[in-house]
Write a structure and sequence with these properties.
- Helix content is about 70%, strand content about 0%.
- It is built from 18 helices and no strands.
- Helix 1 runs antiparallel to helix 3 and helix 12 (about 250-265) packs parallel to helix 14 (about 285-300).
- The longest helix is centred in the first third of the chain and has 27 residues, at about 50-75.
- The radius of gyration is 29 Å and the shape is elongated.
- Belongs to the UTP6 family.
Length: about 375
């Protein structure tokens, strides 16, 4: 253990000498830094080490790095420090990552260590390191749904890599098919992606497929999985327009919906409808129609199917109020159901309308549910 501690401490000597030469820290401060590092190294290499020892060590180094940057900025303004790049400029960040890397290897099940490591790597723009961390984390914890969601979010929002994001969601679902959060996040990603893609192409005038081919995605090493899930190809074509390419119309989202309902049942249907509600720029009627047709085929006798059929015309506006009422009356005439009536009345009472609409809704409620 002593040899290992000595080895790690010796690695920091050039950095400390550079800090002293630049005048950022004096001899006494350098001695204090070495003493603290020695103490921390003994703690984390000992048999009784704990995850918080690594966190405290990284916190000390992080505070030290902040102090170095503050002094460097102040002294460089008055020309009292050599601004030529040297080892102390990057050694602090590398040391902190090395400490956290060692911590995650010794305590692979500690979520706080992984979170700290990821946050620090992201904050410092270390994309390759972030990929390495996520790859290790997902290999070690394939059932960690939060890790899959975090990796997918990073891949899409930070790296704008749709193919990589799709692969993450699909692999995560094959390993965690029971996770509703993964299903819904994957579905939301697909709608968000085509919405942004179509808006961008419209803005830039990328109308032909040859122009669109120039849009490229640049992967994490993911754990393997065997499953019967029938998910879309991650490398699908996104060329063309909604009229020529069903993927741009929302068919990928609908494929996810079909598979999710098979796996999770009717309870997730409303959550998918809520996702569709949020995308005004897409053909929502096309998406709604598929959902309705699916549940009418698979759950024809479920009261929820009737309720969705009745209320679809008024999900996003009041324009379909008359159609909604007519559908309800048709269901009522065919099979009177007090529960369905109460559900529809509650839905009508939730409608936000102007002074003309409110009296109309009250009249409708009295008609369909007389006291």
């Amino acid at each position: 253990m002593a040899d290992k501690v000595r080895y790690y401490l010796e690695q920091s000597v050039p950095e400390l000498e550079d800090l002293k030469v630049k005048g950022l820290f004096d001899k006494n401060e350098i001695t204090m830094i070495m003493r603290r590092r020695t103490d921390f190294e003994h703690r984390i290499t000992g048999r009784g080490s704990r995850p918080r020892d690594y966190l405290k060590y990284s916190e000390f180094e992080n505070n030290l790095e902040k102090l170095r940057k503050k002094r460097y900025t102040r002294l460089s303004k008055v020309g009292l420090v050599d601004t030529k790049p040297s080892i102390s400029d990057w050694a602090g960040v590398r040391r902190i990552m090395f400490i956290l890397d060692r911590g995650t290897k010794k305590f692979p099940g500690d979520q706080q260590l992984w979170a700290e490591y990821l946050t620090y790597a992201k904050d410092n723009g270390a994309i390759k390191v972030v990929y390495k961390i996520y790859s290790r984390l997902l290999q070690l914890q394939p059932r960690n749904v939060d890790a899959w969601l975090s990796a997918a979010k990073y891949e899409f929002e930070t790296n704008a890599n749709a193919k990589g994001t799709r692969l993450l969601f699909q692999r995560g679902l094959r390993l965690n098919p029971e996770s509703t959060a993964l299903w819904l996040s994957y579905a939301q990603f697909e709608l968000t992606y085509i919405s942004k893609l179509l808006a961008r192409r419209k803005l830039l005038g990328l109308l032909t497929e040859s122009e669109q081919k120039k849009e490229t995605d640049d992967m994490m090493i993911l754990p393997q999985a065997e499953t019967t899930l029938n998910l879309p190809d991650a490398d699908m074509s996104m060329l063309g327009s909604p009229e020529t390419n069903p993927a741009l119309k929302g068919d990928v989202f609908l494929a996810i919906f079909d598979e999710c309902v098979k796996a999770k049942g009717f309870d997730v249907v409303e959550k998918f409808l809520h996702l569709i509600d949020q995308f005004e720029d897409l053909d929502r009627d096309y998406l709604y129609s598929h959902v309705l047709n699916y549940i009418q085929r698979e759950y024809p006798d479920d009261i929820g199917t009737a309720f969705i059929d009745i209320t679809l015309p008024i999900r996003t506006s009041n324009d379909g109020l008359q159609l909604s009422v007519n559908k309800f009356l048709a269901y009522k005439a065919k099979n009177p159901n007090k529960e369905l009536t109460n559900m529809f009345v509650n839905k009508l009472m939730q409608i936000d309308g102007n002074e003309k609409v409110k009296p109309l809704i009250q009249a409708i409620i009295k008609k369909i549910n007389p006291a």
